[in-house]
C-alpha cells in the first residue's frame, strides 16, 4: 500500500503551477485595478495590501456596463458574438465528435490526428491565412463568382460581424471537439445497448441516453472555448479592424497597451472575470449534481 | 512615428507648491527657475511646463553632462532601444565595427511600453529613441541624461536650424532630432477619383468616402484618430483638453462608421501599395517607406499620393534620440548620436525606413534629381520652414487630458 499523502504530493506541481502562473498574476491584476499610477511615468503601481485598495476605478468601470453607458454596447456585442460562435461550434462539433466516437472504428486514430492537426499551426497564423482567403479578390470570392453565386461577393473583411463569428468558430472549434469526444467516449456502451434492447429507436437512444450523459462534456467544452473567446481581441483585429466589431478584449488591450489608465484595463479584466466566473460556477454546479446523481 | 500617447503628472493644475514639492522630490532644483517663469503654463510630469512651439521649454538639468574630450569606451555591447524597422541595420553594424563594440538592438512597440520598460529597469539600453512628448517624463524621472554637445558637432553643421534648439528641448539639452514627418492623408490615385490635394478641405474626404467603403483606414492612435475629426472641423488646437471639443471629435469620428466603416490600424505602409487600402490617414514616412520597401512586384508606386496640410493646419512631428542616465558608455553614446546626424548615415537610413532626417543637405529637389523619390511623392518631403513657431505638434498633455483622450478614443473603438 502506498501512503495516503503520496497522492496529495503528486498534486503539488499542479498547485505550484496554479499559484505561480494564475493566482499571483491574478492578484497582480487586482492590485493594478485597485491601485494607483506612478505620478511621473504613469506606470501602474499595484496596491498589494488590501487595506490600500481603492475601489473608485472598479466601480466607475462597472457603472459603464449599465444599459446605455459606455461599455454596454461592446459587452452586448461580445456576448452575442460568443453565444453565436459557441452555438455554431456546437452544431458543427457535436456531430463530428459523435461520429468519431461512435462510428469511426478503425479510422478513429486518423480522424483524431486530423482534429489535432490545426494545433500544429499557431492561432495567429491561421487567422492571418483567413485574411488572404476572404480578401476582396481572395479565393472565397473568386469561387463565389465562378460558381455564379453572386456577382457582387460580400466584403468579408470590412467590419463584417459574420466574418468575426466565423473566424472565432474556425479558431476555437478544435478545442470544443476534443473534450466533447472524450466525454462521448466515456459513455458506457452497455447503457446504449440497454436502451436499444428496451425498444428505443436510435434517435430516442441519442436523445434520452447519449445527449443527457454528454451534457457535462458539452458544458465543459463550451467553457473551454467560451472563456477565451470572451477575452479575444486578435480575431476581430485581423478579420475586421473596424470599431463596429470590437470586442471587450479590444478595450482591455487599449487600456493595458499604454496610457495613464491601466486600472481601467485591469478593472475591465476583473469584471469580465466575474461574469465568466458566474458561468463557470453554473458548469461546476451541473457537474457536481451529475456526479451526485450517478453515485451509487 | 507616433505610437502610444503622451503623459503628464497625476495633477492637472498642480499648485505651485505641489509642483515645487514634486521637483524637489525629483531632485531637479534647476527646474524651479523655469517653473517660476511658467506660472501661467499648464504643468506636466515633475512640474515641468508643457512645451508648445510658441512656449518653448528648457528642460531642467537632472545631472551634469560628461566632460569634454574623453575617449570613447571600447569593447562590450552597445545597446539601442528603438521601434522595430526604424533604423538601418547596416548602419548600426557599421557603427559597431568603427568602435569595436557589438551592437544590440532591443525593440518596443510604442512609447508607453518603452518608458515602462526603461523605468522598471526591464531593459538597460545605452541610447533610446524617444518622442518629444515623453521628454518631460524621462527628465523628471531621471531616465535620460544631459548631453555635452561638444561630442555632437553634426547637430550644428547638418541639422535644420529650427531643430538645433527645438521648442520641446531648448538648447538640445537631452536630445538630438532623428526624423521628421507630417500626419496627413495617403491614397491611391488610381482608386480614388477625387483630387484630394485640391479639395477645399482635404480632411473631409474621409466623410465623403462611401464609395470606398472597405478600403478606408485611420491611424490606431488616440491623438491621431481624434485629431483627424478636429482638423476636419477646422479646429487646430490638437493638444486641447477641452472635453466638449474632444466629445465633438468623437461624434464626428464615429460618424465615419456608417459612411465608410474605416479600419483602424497602422498597416498603411503595406496596405496602400498592395491595394488593400485606398485611402488612409498616414504619416509621410509611411508613404515613403511603402514606396521604398513595401511595393509588391509589378507595382511602380506611381499612383501613391500624400497630402500634408499647410503649416499650422496639420500636425508635424519629430522623433529624437537620447542617452540613458544609467549608461556605462556615455562617450560612445554621444558618438552614436553624432553618427545618427552624419549625412551619409542619415541618407542611408532614410532609404531604409522612409522617414526623412532633418538634414540640411537632403532636399526634395535633390531627391527628385537623383530619382530617389518620384514626382508624385514630393509632398512627403519637408523643409525647415515647416517646423518652428506656427507649426502644430502632438505635444505633452497633462495626465487628466491624456486620460480624457484615451477614454474618448476607447469609446470610439468600442463602437459606441
What does this structure look like?
- The complex is a heterodimer of chains A (296) and B (416).
- Chain A has 296 residues and is an all-alpha fold.
- Chain A has a single domain, classed as MetI-like (MetI-like fold).
- Helices cover 71% and strands 1% of the residues of chain A.
- Chain A has 14 helices and 2 strands, in the order H-H-E-E-H-H-H-H-H-H-H-H-H-H-H-H.
- A two-stranded antiparallel ribbon of chain A has the order 1-2.
- In chain A, a hairpin with a 6-residue loop joins strand 1 (36-37) and strand 2.
- The longest helix of chain A has 33 residues, at 262-294.
- Chain A is globular.
- In chain A, 34% of the residues are buried.
- Chain B starts with 15 loop residues before the first helix and ends with a helix.
- Chain B has 15 helices and 9 strands.
- The longest helix of chain B has 15 residues, at 399-413.
- In chain B, strands 1, 2, 3, 4, 5, 6, 7, 8 and 9 form a 9-stranded mixed beta sheet that branches.
- In chain B, helix 7 (222-232) crosses helix 15 (399-413) and helix 10 packs across helix 11 (284-294).
- Chain B has a domain at 181-315 and 397-413: 3-Layer(aba) Sandwich (D-Maltodextrin-Binding Protein, domain 2), CATH 3.40.190.10.
- By secondary structure, chain B is of the alpha/beta class.
- Classes of the chains: A mainly alpha (296), B alpha/beta (416).
- Chains A and B meet through helix 4 and helix 13 of A and helix 4, strand 6 and helix 15 of B.
Amino acid at each position: 500500500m502506498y501512503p495516503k499523502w503520496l497522492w496529495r504530493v503528486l498534486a503539488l506541481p499542479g498547485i505550484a503551477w496554479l499559484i505561480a502562473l494564475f493566482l499571483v498574476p491574478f492578484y497582480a491584476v487586482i492590485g493594478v485595478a485597485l491601485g494607483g499610477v506612478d505620478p511621473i511615468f504613469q506606470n501602474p503601481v499595484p496596491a498589494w495590501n488590501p487595506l490600500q485598495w481603492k475601489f473608485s476605478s472598479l466601480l466607475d468601470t462597472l457603472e459603464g456596463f449599465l444599459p446605455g453607458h459606455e461599455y454596454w454596447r461592446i459587452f452586448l456585442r461580445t456576448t452575442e458574438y460568443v453565444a453565436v460562435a459557441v452555438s455554431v461550434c456546437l452544431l458543427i462539433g457535436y456531430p463530428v465528435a459523435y461520429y468519431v466516437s461512435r462510428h469511426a472504428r478503425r479510422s478513429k486514430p486518423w480522424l483524431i490526428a486530423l482534429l489535432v492537426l490545426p494545433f500544429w499551426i499557431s492561432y495567429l497564423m491561421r487567422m492571418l491565412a483567413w485574411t488572404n482567403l476572404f480578401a476582396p479578390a481572395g479565393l472565397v470570392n473568386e469561387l463565389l463568382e465562378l460558381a455564379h453565386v453572386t456577382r457582387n461577393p460580400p466584403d468579408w473583411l470590412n467590419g463584417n460581424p459574420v466574418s468575426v463569428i466565423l473566424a472565432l468558430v474556425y479558431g476555437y472549434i478544435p478545442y470544443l471537439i476534443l473534450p466533447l469526444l472524450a466525454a462521448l467516449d466515456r459513455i458506457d456502451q452497455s447503457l446504449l445497448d440497454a436502451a436499444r434492447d428496451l425498444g428505443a429507436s436510435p434517435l430516442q437512444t441519442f436523445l434520452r441516453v447519449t445527449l443527457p450523459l454528454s451534457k457535462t462534456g458539452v458544458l465543459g467544452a463550451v467553457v473551454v472555448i467560451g472563456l477565451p473567446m470572451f477575452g479575444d481581441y486578435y480575431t476581430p483585429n485581423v478579420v475586421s479592424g473596424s470599431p463596429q466589431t470590437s470586442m471587450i478584449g479590444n478595450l482591455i488591450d487599449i487600456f493595458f497597451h499604454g496610457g495613464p489608465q491601466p486600472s481601467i484595463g485591469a478593472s475591465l479584466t476583473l469584471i469580465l472575470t466575474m461574469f465568466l466566473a458566474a458561468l463557470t460556477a453554473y458548469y461546476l454546479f451541473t457537474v457536481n449534481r451529475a456526479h451526485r446523481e450517478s453515485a451509487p | 512615428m507616433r505610437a502610444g500617447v503622451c503623459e503628464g503628472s497625476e495633477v492637472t493644475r498642480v499648485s505651485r507648491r505641489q509642483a515645487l514639492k514634486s521637483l524637489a522630490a525629483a531632485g531637479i532644483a534647476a527646474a524651479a527657475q523655469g517653473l517660476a517663469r511658467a506660472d501661467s503654463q499648464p504643468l506636466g510630469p515633475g512640474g515641468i511646463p508643457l512645451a508648445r512651439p510658441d512656449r518653448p521649454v528648457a528642460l531642467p538639468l537632472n545631472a551634469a553632462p560628461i566632460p569634454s574630450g574623453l575617449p570613447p569606451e571600447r569593447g562590450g555591447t552597445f545597446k539601442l532601444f528603438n521601434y522595430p524597422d526604424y533604423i538601418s541595420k547596416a548602419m548600426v553594424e557599421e557603427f559597431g565595427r568603427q568602435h569595436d563594440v557589438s551592437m544590440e538592438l532591443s525593440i518596443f512597440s510604442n512609447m508607453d511600453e518603452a518608458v515602462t520598460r526603461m523605468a522598471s529597469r526591464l531593459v538597460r539600453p545605452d541610447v533610446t529613441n524617444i518622442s518629444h512628448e515623453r521628454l518631460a517624463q524621462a527628465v523628471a524621472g531621471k531616465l535620460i541624461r544631459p548631453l555635452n554637445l561638444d561630442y555632437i558637432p553634426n547637430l550644428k553643421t547638418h541639422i535644420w536650424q529650427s531643430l538645433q534648439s527645438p521648442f520641446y528641448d531648448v538648447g538640445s539639452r537631452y536630445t538630438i532630432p532623428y526624423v521628421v514627418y507630417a500626419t496627413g492623408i495617403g491614397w491611391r490615385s488610381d482608386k480614388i477619383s477625387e483630387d484630394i490635394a485640391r479639395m477645399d478641405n482635404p480632411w473631409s474626404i474621409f466623410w465623403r468616402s462611401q464609395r470606398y467603403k472597405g478600403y478606408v483606414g485611420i491611424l490606431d492612435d488616440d491623438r491621431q484618430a481624434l485629431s483627424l475629426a478636429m482638423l476636419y472641423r477646422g479646429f487646430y488646437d490638437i493638444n486641447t483638453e477641452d472635453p466638449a471639443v474632444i466629445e465633438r471629435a468623437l461624434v464626428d469620428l464615429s460618424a465615419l462608421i456608417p459612411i465608410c466603416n474605416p479600419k483602424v490600424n497602422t498597416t498603411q505602409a503595406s496596405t496602400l501599395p498592395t491595394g488593400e487600402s485606398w485611402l488612409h490617414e498616414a504619416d509621410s514616412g509611411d508613404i515613403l517607406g511603402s514606396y521604398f520597401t513595401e511595393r509588391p512586384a509589378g507595382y511602380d508606386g506611381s499612383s501613391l499620393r500624400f497630402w500634408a496640410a499647410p503649416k499650422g493646419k496639420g500636425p508635424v512631428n519629430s522623433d529624437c534620440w537620447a542617452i540613458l542616465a544609467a549608461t556605462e558608455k556615455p562617450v560612445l553614446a554621444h558618438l552614436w548620436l553624432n553618427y545618427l546626424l552624419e549625412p551619409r548615415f542619415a541618407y542611408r537610413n532614410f532609404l531604409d525606413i522612409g522617414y526623412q532626417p532633418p538634414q540640411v543637405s537632403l532636399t526634395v529637389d535633390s531627391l527628385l534629381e537623383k530619382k530617389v523619390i518620384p514626382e508624385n511623392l514630393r509632398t512627403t518631403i519637408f523643409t525647415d520652414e515647416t517646423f518652428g513657431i506656427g507649426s502644430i505638434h502632438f505635444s505633452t498633455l497633462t495626465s487628466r487630458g491624456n486620460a480624457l483622450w484615451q477614454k474618448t478614443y476607447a469609446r470610439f473603438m468600442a463602437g459606441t
